[in-house]
Amino acid sequence: MKDHEAVTLKAFLVALTTQSEPLTPDLQNQLHLLSENLLANLVKLDAIARQSSDLSAIYKSARQYFDAPSERNKGRLNLVNDPP
């Protein structure tokens, strides 16, 4: 699984777990069909999440969170055995 695919899946799961009501039967059916070969259908999963009024806002926020670059250590590591 590539990084962007992992972001799609994680963001979708975040959006899905925040739902207080069951998804519509049509959406449940679409997800069931996608689950038969999830890795091949991640692009479709992204499209479904973006188009669903129930999932879209949270999905987009979660994608932004997971896509954000992490802070990198720009300085030199302090090693215990370094001379003063």
From TrEMBL:
Protein name: Uncharacterized protein
Taxon lineage: Bacteria, Bacillati, Cyanobacteriota, Cyanophyceae, Synechococcales
Organism: Woronichinia naegeliana WA131
Superkingdom per UniProt: Bacteria
